[in-house]
Amino acid sequence: MLECLALSFSYDGKTKVLNDLSLSFEKGQFYGIFGPNGSGKSTFLKLLTGELKADAGTVTPLWCDPLERAQHIALVEQQIPGSLPLTVEEVALLGNYPWVRAGKVSHAAAEQIFEELELSSFKKRSFNALSGGERQRVMLARALVQNTPILCLDEPGSSLDVGFQHTLCRILKKLSREGKCVIMVSHDLFSAPTYLDRMIILDKGKLVMEGNPDHVKNSPGLRRIFNLPEVF
Q1: Rounded to two decimals, what is the model's pTM?
Q2: DSSP labels for 125-190?
Q3: Domains delineated in the chain
């Protein structure tokens, strides 16, 4: 469904943030990408979504234009907008934009998403009046309303409380079981892998581990990369 081959990237043309990275992602799977700070996780996600262009290597498929890309891949970014002069409902429904001309907007589907993310009770509230965690849930709702076969998320649980982090992972797992390809960048090595199908570890811009979450979590190499104690 989505494949990258020999990707390399640098911001300054000198220091490589990603180096010769090759991975493939299939529909119906929930992937988690982990790594120390500066390992290239967010940059990799931006290359997959087309926000950045690789210095070398390829990402396929290559969509014809931004509208076609937006109909195939949605992104929940790490940075939450600080201010939007819109209601919760209006922000979430921005996800419909790629489908307006195609006539594939579903308000019933949006209502179900509001309910799953516990947003129904404050749809009419100002986005600017929300807490950080609530705003993050609204941005997730926008991406889900976009209704793409591929969903990418950059640390979507960073502003959520522990209980809703698990709720989020359960929702993402359900979406993958319904056929979506879900790719999540995360720092949560403790609970997130419970929900994943595949676990990917980056370090210093390179792929160092990829496989079954139980196998990867118990690898001595993981402890070295993250400087984890033996009790992990």
Answers
A1: 0.93
A2: SBGGGS-HHHHHHHHHHHHHHT--SEEEEESTTTTS-HHHHHHHHHHHHHHHHTT-EEEEE---TT
A3: 1-69+150-156+180-232 (3.40.50.300), 73-147 (no CATH)
